[in-house]
């Protein structure tokens, strides 16, 4: 794309997305269908804004899938992978095997050569990770049994792409023309021996795993220390693009390489930060990908061989659905979840496009047949949002969904705790220790890379990131947290965080540390009632001990301290309730002076009554006894 | 004999509520009775810093005061004594001008580890629960209140769940009767 061609193209794409996606979402169709339809609309068979170049865009947008797999890898801690192992290998493996077998049999039955039939069988056994995960997450199905199982099956499919890439060249029809190498992506290893190829591939994978652990993490730590957020984002993008390039170079799928890197980084403290940094890029690129899929559907071909394409789409969706239904039964998923599982996965996948072009290059499929299959897969992808819609509107309401959905509710993806502590310095870490002493594991967010490092080496679950960022809070599980403890040392940040959470997640109870009286007043005015002034307790105790040192009995000194605190708190709340017409930084300084003045006058001013404790006071009793 | 709707205040005191089976059942029963205010004193003042004004206002706005607590060392948990010291002030609860509590009723609902037989002249504890509560009974009388005989659940360590449910039911029934003013004074 030339420079002056880029802006109009970007404009058309973004415009289509901005118009179509909200409408589709509003109609309950889901964003994926919105993107697909927008793609059709701007494509050569719609308004024709994008007469040519959809293929290029598709190629570019596949990077969205790469990024998605990186983020998926990030969310995939080894423990979760282990828990899903049965589903992953059992259901995933059977799904690929059975679908391939069925498709091959159908192909042979209609008179296709077995090699081509097997190749197409392998290709259509894959589903679309992008469409399925996006659609399921959007509708809140990911945490259900079917969502988890679909995820495991998709993961297996993504892994299965590697052996498929190795297998496809072997299926070349005898005497077929093999064009080595993709002109757009010259491979480093074209013409090298199988041993060298294998060695380089293994070395690349090892480089990702070892580099991820011993190079990338220290690097991120160093960058985090600079506290330049955009550099951190740039580093995250650099990592993903670098790995994608490396994988392209050695002929592996970039998606799998970045997925691997994601898994390696899943246990690092930067997990949440990376996730939230890449989220917008991932979202936009995925949207672009769906748009490009819509735009690249060759409706001329569809019209020309309508019967073939239509038959293929129907066979693809129905055949896959049949296998999925069978699997649901075999693994005792229950009717409701089986139907959801089936509706989610009965389509062709984006890796199918890659494999098809690869199969074309290797002479496994004739270009014309490959194009028909491409069209069929793209159309089958468009059926998924419709299938899910059918499930949600027609099928689910007729079944006992409620009972079925809660069955495996505890088996969720992330281990987000019910308590989030924002800020883990001296203050927050003490709170964390108190909770841990009672077996409660808080999710901790902190912005000091050195400290995060230290705490993690002690085995604490601490994540690096700026707690005031909505995405990070979301990653940490704010939507299901019961309690947010704000232990930041900066009152402005505390106020911003508390206000944002109260607005977006009113169910979360907030306990907030605050350092100044002015900060406390701001929080009170923002509706945060449970505030803790971090110097007050210690100062009042010192005051009481000073009284004791001057001869006040210790218990009385303690009670004077308690009474003082109560009075001070009441005064603060009174002052906070006064209407205030000024705001802004300078006024914050004025407010602080005003609050301190107020506090001092309350104790030092003329005619101010002393704090008293009337408990165990018997003066009235003695007076009454004497008066008798 | 009082009549008509009485405002019942259950003052609950247990320093380790999470360990209590019997008191929890009784408290749950009390909470089911409409028109009964339940006030958990240890929950309100974990640091014994009792808000005297608030407590006096609570007492003033109710007609029947029920202290619900386990029987610790033949008496109440510690905070009840702190509460007495701080809330029942001279000139308010007693003394020449201290008439705020006059005419109200005062009762204890206690759970005791010992069986009923232990709280007899021949038993291990040599006194009945009501006898052991004498200082509280006298406190109530000094404040011009009517002392009602205590509701006692005995043998809490060996109580079956069925028996406990029965006790909880009769406690709820008793509170209902107090609310409706159906009890005879000092029966």
Account of the protein in words:
- The complex is a heterodimer of chains A (628) and B (187).
- Chain A is mainly alpha-helical and 628 residues long.
- In chain A, 69% of the residues lie in helices and 4% in strands.
- Chain A has helices at 3-26, 31-42, 54-75, 78-83, 85-109, 114-125, 129-138, 145-167, 194-226, 229-250, 254-265, 271-296, 299-304, 306-330, 335-345, 350-361, 367-395, 401-405, 426-437, 449-457, 470-475, 491-504, 517-525, 536-549, 554-577, 585-604, 619-627; strands spanning 419-422, 443-446, 462-464, 483-486, 509-514, 531-533.
- Chain A has a six-stranded parallel sheet with strand order 3-2-1-4-5-6, sandwiched between helices.
- Chain A is elongated and about 120 Å long.
- By secondary structure, chain B is of the alpha/beta class.
- Chain B is built from seven helices and six strands.
- In chain B, strands 1, 2, 3, 4, 5 and 6 form a six-stranded parallel sheet that branches.
- In chain B, strand 3 (64-70), helix 4 and strand 4 (105-111) form a beta-alpha-beta unit.
- In chain B, helix 1 runs parallel beside helix 7.
- The relative contact order of chain B is 0.20.
- The interface between A and B is small, with 10 and 10 residues.
Short description:
The complex is a heterodimer of chains A (628) and B (187). With 628 residues, chain A is mostly helical.
Describe the secondary-structure layout.
The complex is a heterodimer of chains A (628) and B (187).
Chain A: H1 3-26, H2 31-42, H3 54-75, H4 78-83, H5 85-109, H6 114-125, H7 129-138, H8 145-167, H9 194-226, H10 229-250, H11 254-265, H12 271-296, H13 299-304, H14 306-330, H15 335-345, H16 350-361, H17 367-395, H18 401-405, E1 419-422, H19 426-437, E2 443-446, H20 449-457, E3 462-464, H21 470-475, E4 483-486, H22 491-504, E5 509-514, H23 517-525, E6 531-533, H24 536-549, H25 554-577, H26 585-604, H27 619-627
Parallel strand pairs in A: 1-2, 1-4, 2-3, 4-5, 5-6
Chain B: E1 8-12, H1 22-32, E2 36-40, H2 41-44, H3 52-60, E3 64-70, H4 78-87, E4 105-111, H5 129-132, H6 134-142, E5 146-147, E6 151-153, H7 161-179
Helix pairs in contact in B: 1-7
């Amino acid at each position: 794309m030339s420079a002056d061609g880029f802006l109009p193209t970007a404009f058309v794409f973004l415009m289509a997305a901005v118009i179509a996606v909200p409408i589709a979402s509003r109609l309950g169709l889901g964003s994926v269908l919105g993107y697909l339809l927008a793609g059709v609309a701007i494509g050569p068979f719609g308004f024709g804004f994008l007469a040519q170049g959809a293929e290029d865009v598709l190629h570019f947008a596949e990077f969205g899938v790469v990024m998605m797999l990186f983020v998926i890898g990030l969310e995939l801690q080894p423990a979760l992978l282990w828990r899903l192992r049965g589903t992953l290998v059992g259901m995933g493996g059977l799904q690929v095997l059975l679908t391939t077998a069925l498709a091959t049999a159908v192909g042979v039955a209609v008179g296709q050569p077995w090699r081509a039939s097997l190749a197409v069988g392998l290709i259509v056994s894959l589903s679309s990770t992008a469409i399925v995960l996006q659609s399921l997450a959007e509708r809140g199905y990911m945490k259900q049994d079917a969502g988890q199982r679909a995820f495991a099956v998709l993961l297996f499919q993504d892994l299965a792409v590697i052996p498929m890439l190795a297998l496809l060249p072997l299926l070349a029809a005898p005497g077929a023309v093999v064009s080595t190498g993709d002109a757009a992506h010259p491979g480093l290893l074209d013409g090298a021996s199988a041993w060298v190829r294998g060695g380089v591939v293994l070395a690349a994978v090892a480089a990702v795993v070892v580099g991820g652990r011993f190079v990338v993490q220290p690097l991120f730590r160093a960058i985090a220390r600079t506290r330049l957020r955009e550099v951190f984002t740039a580093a995250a993008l650099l990592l993903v693009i670098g790995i994608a390039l490396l994988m392209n170079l050695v002929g592996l799928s970039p998606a799998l390489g970045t997925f691997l890197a994601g898994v390696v980084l899943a246990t690092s403290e930067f997990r949440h930060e990376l996730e939230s940094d890449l989220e917008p890029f991932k979202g936009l690129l995925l949207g672009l990908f769906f748009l490009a899929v819509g735009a690249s559907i060759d409706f001329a071909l569809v019209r020309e061989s309508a019967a073939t394409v239509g038959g293929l789409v129907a066979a693809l969706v129905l055949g896959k659905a049949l296998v999925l239904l069978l699997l649901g039964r075999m693994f005792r998923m229950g009717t409701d979840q089986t139907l959801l599982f089936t509706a989610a996965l009965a389509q062709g996948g984006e890796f199918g496009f890659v494999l098809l072009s690869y199969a074309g290059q290797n002479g496994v499929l004739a270009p014309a047949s490959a194009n028909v299959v491409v069209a069929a897969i793209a159309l089958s992808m468009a059926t998924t949002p419709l299938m899910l819609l059918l499930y949600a509107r027609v099928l689910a309401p007729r079944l006992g969904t409620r009972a079925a959905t809660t069955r495996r509710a505890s088996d969720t993806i992330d281990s987000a705790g019910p308590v989030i502590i924002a800020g883990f310095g001296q203050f927050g870490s003490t709170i964390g220790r108190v909770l841990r002493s009672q077996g409660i594991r808080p999710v901790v967010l902190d912005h000091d890379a050195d400290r995060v490092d230290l705490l993690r080496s002690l085995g604490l679950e601490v994540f690096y990131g700026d707690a005031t960022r909505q995405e990070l809070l979301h990653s940490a599980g704010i939507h299901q947290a019961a309690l947010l403890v704000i232990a930041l040392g900066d009152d402005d940040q505390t106020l911003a965080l508390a206000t944002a959470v109260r607005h977006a997640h009113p169910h979360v109870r907030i306990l907030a540390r605050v350092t100044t009286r002015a900060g406390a007043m701001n929080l009170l005015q923002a509706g945060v009632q449970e505030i803790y002034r971090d110097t007050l307790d210690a100062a009042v105790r010192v005051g009481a001990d000073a009284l004791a040192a001057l001869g006040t009995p210790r218990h009385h000194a303690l009670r004077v301290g308690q009474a003082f605190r109560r009075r001070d708190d009441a005064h603060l709340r009174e002052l906070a309730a006064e209407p205030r017409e000024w705001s802004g930084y300078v006024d914050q300084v004025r407010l602080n002076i005003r609050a301190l003045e107020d506090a001092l006058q309350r104790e030092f001013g003329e005619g101010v009554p002393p704090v008293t404790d009337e408990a165990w006071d018997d003066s009235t009793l003695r007076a009454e006894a004497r008066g008798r | 004999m009082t009549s008509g709707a009485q405002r019942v205040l259950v003052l609950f005191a247990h320093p380790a509520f999470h360990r209590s089976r019997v008191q929890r059942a009784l408290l749950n029963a009390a909470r089911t009775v409409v028109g009964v205010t339940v006030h958990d004193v240890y929950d309100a003042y974990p640091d014994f810093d009792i808000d005297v004004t608030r407590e006096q206002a609570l007492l003033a706005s109710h007609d029947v005061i029920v202290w619900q607590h386990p029987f610790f060392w033949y008496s109440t948990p510690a905070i009840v004594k702190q509460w007495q010291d701080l809330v029942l002030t001279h000139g308010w609860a007693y003394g020449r001008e201290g008439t705020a509590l006059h005419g109200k009723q005062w009762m204890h609902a206690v759970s005791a580890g010992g069986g009923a037989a232990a709280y007899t002249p021949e038993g291990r504890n040599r006194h009945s629960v009501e006898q052991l509560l004498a200082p509280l009974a006298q406190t109530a009388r000094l404040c011009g209140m009517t002392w009602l005989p205590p509701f006692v659940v005995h043998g809490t360590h060996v109580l079956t769940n069925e028996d406990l449910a029965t006790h909880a039911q009769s406690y709820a029934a008793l509170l209902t009767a107090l609310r409706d003013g159906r009890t005879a004074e000092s029966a």
